[in-house]
């Protein structure tokens, strides 16, 4: 390995900033990346604020090979991460077929109807790849642009850990090994 692979962790959510919940995601993410040999260069926590998110994405992408984001992908009104990522990458939302199938199966197993609000979980920026989330409704989003990764994941720890373990850690490990 030549140069060190750098990773920044960005956690999004008003509930983190006001101390309503403890940010266990950042510590878990950092420990997993460090175990692979990556260098975690920044931890940042911000609220559900469009301007802050755009500024922090710009700052972190300039300074790291990968930015790992948790939070703001759910179906509630304050979950704005997808729309901010569309703005940041000058992109539009498209429906992801694999996510629709996952959501349909999940809701059928629970005996519930897939509402339009939950169906919106299948929308993703067209420049991203959806990372299926069998533990919840919000898929992860993977952007790979100009040799840099940006991964957005749900803030629910169990869901984030599943997406990281199944999709992101193998990708980072492979990249570090190059």
Index terms:
single chain; 178 residues; alpha/beta; six-stranded mixed sheet; two-stranded antiparallel sheet; 7 helices
Count of helical regions = 7
Identify the strand order in the major beta sheet: 2-1-3-8-7-6
Which stretches are low in confidence, meaning pLDDT under 50 for 5 or more residues running?
none
CA-atom Rg in angstroms: 16 Å
Termini separation (Å)?
7 Å
The largest sheet, given as strand count, sense and whether it forms a barrel, is: 6 strands, mixed
Total DSSP E strands: 8
The H-and-E topology, N to C, reads as EHHEHEHEHHEEEEH
Question: Looking at the structure, what is the overall shape?
Answer: globular
Assess the beta-strand content as a share of residues.
15-25%
Class per helix and strand makeup: alpha/beta
User: What value does the average pLDDT take?
Assistant: 93
Please give the oligomerization state of what you see: single chain
Proportion in helices: 40-55%
